[in-house]
Design brief:
114 residues; mainly beta; 6% helix
Length: 114
């Protein structure tokens, strides 16, 4: 691994380690005109792709019976922090099957990880 990969992954110390299936709270910077505020998006990580500075992840949540997915660049300056709320026990890395589930069926068991 060359030096610029190491720097990219150490850009933001507020990003906790997370995997697909985990419920995370992503804090992002939103600009509205000349004002700037922090907006939080909480949901289940359904995928994580790429490595190094180009890593992205997709978070899904259901708001008012509508599934909402947002994809974030992990090391983007817009992403302020990623906080892990719960750890999920899943057996695969792409959780697209959650799109077809609703209610209790879409719940993910909590993992017994450290």
């Amino acid at each position: 691994m060359d030096a610029h990969h190491l720097v990219a992954t150490e850009l933001n110390p507020k990003i906790q380690d997370f995997r697909p299936g985990d419920t995370v709270r992503v804090s992002t910077t939103v600009r509205e005109g000349d004002r700037q505020r922090t907006q939080v998006f909480e949901g289940v990580v359904i995928r994580r792709r790429g490595a190094g500075a180009g890593t992205s992840f997709t978070v899904r949540r259901v708001a008012r019976d509508i599934g909402v997915e947002r994809t974030f660049m992990l090391h983007s300056p817009i992403v302020e922090a990623v906080e892990t709320v719960r750890r999920g026990a899943v057996r695969r890395s792409r959780l697209y099957y959650l799109r077809g589930l609703s209610g209790r069926a879409a719940r993910i068991k909590e993992a017994r990880r450290n």
